[in-house]
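Reading a protein record of the kind used here takes only a little practice. Think of the row as the fold of the chain written in a discrete alphabet. A record is reproduced here so that you can trace the correspondence yourselves:
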Amino acid sequence: MSRDIRVKKTLRAVNHFVIFFLMVAFIVSCCMLLFLNTMTRSMGIELTSDNIELAAKITMLNVVIITALFTVLDHARRKITVERPTQKIIEAGRKVMEGDFSVRIENLTSIGTEDPFQEIAECFNKMAQELSSTETLRTDFVANVSHEMKTPLAVMQNYGTLLQAPELSEEKRIEYAKALTDASRRLADMMTNILKLNRLENQQITPTCEHYNLSEQVCECLLGFEAAWEKKELNIETDIEEDVCISSDAEMMSLVWNNLFSNAIKFTEKGGTVSIFLYTEGDHAVVKVSDTGCGISADVGKHMFDKFYQGDTSHATQGNGLGLALVRRVIDITESDISVESELGKGTTFTVRIGRCCDGVEAAR
């Protein structure tokens, strides 16, 4: 223990003793005077200077003894009920400052009492748990980004080196240049999605509630993938109810449709079928996106909305595992709902339910 701390503790003990001494001296003196006056009046006893001196000495001795007793008891009380829990909280706080988010404060509640320190401990434990989760997510995010960037960067480096060969044919040059362009595009798409997801997760984008035609939006988003489905010779089945209007953020919801349509086309084999349904159900608009692709297992389904998670590694080069994470975040922000039904080898169906009306208050971006 440092000298400054010892001096502070000594001064605090002296301060407590003086306070108790004054308080006890006042109370005991008042009681003694009241007692002596009562005895004098009722019994006719005449007080002499010797009697008064003796009474004063006894009173002073009682005051000192009672003050010392109170000081010791108060010190013990503070040691048990204040200093010990405070020290535990301080030690736990220091560990958190050092980066140890696994620390937890054990029960501080005193027997038979409502201990406010326990509320502090519970808040501290929740804070430490949240910090631990945030740190884990941050570490995983950095690791995943680094891993995902390595592949396109390696491709760009390799093909860039190959393009420098002087004897390279025109056909190979075009092939390598295309591979280089695809890798750079994939890297750019990943960065774009990371920025979008980061803005969504940090609430830098808030939904703007506007009334618009969902039927037209779904059709427009679907037509944007016409070249992709024609290339794979997919059958596109649609049953879209006309003039279904909702109150939501149109720009955010377009992210949902683009990602769901992209996944459905991506994971459906050549000649397969992708189906898009839109209908109303009570006060909700329901959009279903089905495909006859590879499907997903229950284990993969538990993680499909996690960032960078790609259940089908054979298609890993076609995406970066951020699409469904974006979808999940938009669904949460717009207070919509999404569910998934899938079976290995038979396909997957995503169902999105959107409230058709809002409270009429538009949130500012």
Observations:
- The longest strand covers residues 273-281.
- The two ends are 54 Å apart (CA to CA).
- Strands lie at 210-213, 235-240, 245-248, 273-281, 284-291, 337-343, 347-355.
